[in-house]
Amino acid sequence: MTRLLRLAPLLLACLAQLAAATDLAPNDWLHLSERLSGGRSVDFTPHGTQPGLVYPLQSSDDCSACHGADSTSPTDPTLKYRPHAAWAGSMMANAMRDPLFLAALDVANHDVPGVGDFCLRCHTSNGWYAGHVVKQGFGLPANDVTLGAAACLLEGSYDAPDGYSDYSGLSCHFCHRNMAQGPGGAPMPGNGAAWLDDSDCGGAGEPCRRGPYTYTGVTPPHPWQYSPLHTQSAMCGQCHDVTSPDTGSGPLKTLKLADGTDTGVPFPIERTFSEWQRSSYAGGGQAQTCQGCHMPMSEDPNASACGNPGYPNRSGTLAVHAFAGGNTWIPAVLKGEYDDTEGIPGSWNGLQRGNSFDQTVEWARQMLQSAATLQATITSLVAPGSGSPGSIGLQVKVTNRSGHKFPSGYSEGRRAWLNVRVHDRYGNLLVESAAYDGATAVLTHDAQARVYEVLQGIWNYKGGGNCDTTDLGNQPMFHFALSDCIAKDNRIPPLGFTPATAADPQGYEVRPVAASYPETTPGSGVLVNHDLVPYSFVLPAGAMGPFTVQARLYYQTSSRDYIEFLRREAQVNAFEGENQMCADGPGRPYVVGPKDRTRGEYLYQLWNNAGNDAQQPGYGKSPPEAIAFDSAISDNDRIFRDGFDGGA
Q1: What is the distance between the alpha carbons of residues 89 and 515, in angstroms, rounded to a whole number?
Q2: Which long-range contacts (CB under 8 A, 24 or more apart) does 79-83 make?
Q3: In which band, very low, low, confident or very high, does the pLDDT at 614 lie, cut at 50, 70 and 90?
Q4: Distance separating alpha carbons of residues 409 and 558, to the nearest angstrom
Q5: 629 three-class SS
Q6: Measuring CA to CA, which of 204, 385, 393, 445 is 20 to 30 A from 84?
């Protein structure tokens, strides 16, 4: 806690001394950051506001007294619209508790020592800006890079309330101090390198809270300023367009094509915002912001932003801070590992946000089930004879209804797939494509299986002149910090998707790879937002119709290959257990989380946990979520649909 509480006058004095010594203005964050690199050879976070704020970021717990739920009851309606209550269970609020992220962080730091500074900037806003990662700020010496980049210097613990912890993810104060421009009109730099308002708001002694509202009558009890940025998708884009780190000497990695040609384009790790920008949802009659889907307005007749008396009803004007995506697995893990509903309120143990985690899972399922639709059609049928096989031809149309590619976001281990089954008149399963075994988490990649994913790799890793996504032992590998090529990207484009722009004329950052989506009209440059998937199956001799086709679309947060890769990297490279690795960090040893296990092993055990009994059923192997379903039926002499379309 002592490092969290720094006096503003002392910080200002330090900054002024540093500026005088370097002939720089006190607010010249961009160049000051280069001087604060502590002699390191690489600065992975040279842009945006740097650690050492004059006004430290406040804890999100400070916001909960007004913006939290009225009670801890799971039926309390305020859970569904109060800002803190909705945020508390989201992956944004728990980005630093995510065991998947932490296992990947260790691999990244092993691949590129110190690169964790880049990752942690978006996962622990309070920790990073407080100087608890690599940079301390205001001319103070840098932290130990190895410890800081591994998140070993963060204060608090995984299960500590946010008021005592750097594990609070992206906090309320971080988002509501975001600015579109920095000192001297510097533009928003992206890659999570935000500009934060660090000035006194009208003599209030603290910065303004920035947001999308202008108040009349009753005003907030804290300083406030209307912010157009908070109404725009660019607000989300700064953390949801991730490029290979932009170091002081240029991008860490640039994109190579299949033939090895270096495009010079900084490698695009994630491009959710860019996908939206190049879709119909970015403008025109289909315009829809990120906030419109992921922060929908509450229509509850009693909606209120604040629980204190005297504040107005906000039904239809209160953005729900849900931030729901497709992740249903990790919120359930976090609830089981760190939430203690039996704990004492205000104690250091137990987040006590189980209801918010449950709500996040529910919202994520709703979001997934609105993301795509299916239409299954039987295109041909040769009925089997008593001694001869028959055949059936199908087409499944998958339409992307989201505002970005389907699926989007972090590429490693994330995927969606079509499962197609054909049954006879008695309900017997005759044939299946893309069968999934929930007990082993193995997805069968038969010849017709359609799996939607992006596979990033390392060009010429094996020496064969290819974009390699497997290691020398042909095991799948996921080295996102080293990736410099894309072997596959067959994810379905959003409506009105135009890969090529003036800034990216070849569409290198977002175009399909090893897949093809036709233009809506020849020469338009606009790709269709659906995939037409053909199937042809042999029907066994003697099978009797009518034959029923069932098509299901599934989404999965993390594949077995990815989980096993993270564990394998920890084993092969002899990573230390977390408490051993972080022995010199504050508050160690931790009594929750990985403890004496490596983060990769801890994640694997969570994934492989079958549970003890009905009261502790385990977390499952990143269980797939059903998104959409459709069916069709045929008789020996007829082909017709049953009229069912959509749903899960």
Answers
A1: 36
A2: 79/355, 79/356, 79/359, 80/298, 80/300, 80/320, 80/359, 81/298, 81/300, 81/303, 81/304, 81/314, 81/318, 81/320, 82/304, 82/305, 82/307, 83/172, 83/305, 83/321
A3: low
A4: 12
A5: strand
A6: 204
Longest dimension (CA), the chain: 92
pLDDT for position 467: 98
Residue 88, SS3? Answer: helix
Strands in 497-565 per DSSP E: 530-539, 547-556
Give the whole-angstrom CA distance, residue 520 versus residue 141.
57
For 616, other C-beta atoms within 10 Å of its C-beta total: 11
Which value, to the nearest 10 degrees, does the dihedral of the CA atoms of residues 193, 198, 199, 205 take? 160
Using an 8 Å Cβ cutoff, are 607 and 621 in contact? yes
Please enumerate, as own/partner, the contacts of 636-641 that have beta carbons within 8 Å and a separation of 24 or more. Answer: 636/381, 636/383, 636/545, 636/546, 639/378, 639/379, 639/381, 641/376, 641/377
H or E element in which residue 107 lies: helix 99-111
pLDDT for the residue 351: 81
Structure tokens at 29: 């964050």
Instruction: Give the span between the Cα atoms of 121 and 124, in whole angstroms.
Output: 6
- Report helix, strand and coil shares of the chain as percent, to nearest 5: 25, 20, 55
pLDDT on residue 616: 63
Whether the CB-CB separation of 326 and 415 falls below 8 Å is answered with no
Q: Which of 371, 6, 395 is nearest to 198 (CA)?
A: 6
The answer to whether the beta carbons of residues 117 and 153 sit under 8 Å apart is no
Which pLDDT does position 622 carry in this prediction? 97
Give the DSSP per-residue string, 272-320.
Answer: HHHHHHTSGGGSGGG---HHHHHSPBP--TT--S--STTPPP-TTT-B-
Neighbours of 283 (CB within 10 A): 11
- CA 376 – CA 645 distance, rounded (Å): 8
Q: pTM (2 decimals)?
A: 0.91
Beta bridge partners of 492: 406
Q: Under a CB-based contact definition with an 8 Å cutoff, are residues 90 and 322 in contact?
A: yes
Intervals of CATH 2.60.40.10 along the chain = 371-456+488-516+525-559+624-645
pLDDT at 352: 86
d(CA 320, CA 295): 5
pLDDT tens for 232-252 read 999 999 999 999 999 878 899
Query: Is 537:422 a contact under the CB 8 Å cutoff?
Result: yes
The dihedrals phi and psi of 560, each to the nearest 5 degrees, come to -60, -40
Q: How far is CA 129 from the centre of its chain?
A: 21
